[in-house]
Request: fold
Amino acid sequence: MMRFKKLSLILVPIIIVLILSSTVSADGEGKEGIPEQIPEFVFDVATEPSKEDTLFQVDRPSSNECFREDYCVVSGNAKEENVNIMVMTLDYASRRYQPVELEGKKVWSAGKSGFFALKGVPLKKGLNTLRIYAFLEEAPEEGQITDISVRMIGSSFLSNLKSSIFNLTDAIRRLLR
Reply:
């Protein structure tokens, strides 16, 4: 019994590190470029997100999450087999979402397991709005849109204080509406 505990104390952290260090899930794969069938409204900031998670449920990041690093991990579970995922960031200058390109790929497949994890989604300092578009390859025009706002904060005490004050005032504004 004692030997099993020691072995599990060694193996569990190794397995966790291996899972978190992968770019996508074991059976997920990336695709170069964006499928031409994806409608233009997906990139438009005025498009409302989907009301329900019919194809993909985002586990991470949660909305209003703060990061110290200049990247985040997007993960979740597909509710059907072979769901494709495109992660986008909002370009505030053009008011359009731009696909995230990692290792030459812009679209990833959740695969048969349904688990999806993408490490290294770049963040700019301050507020970042991510759009996750999940779609089936047979029907890319009928996908699910999920919008998430996250914040990249610096590691200094002053920037953490500013961010905390901003988050507090933002929460108060939302309550008073």
The radius of gyration is 18 Å.
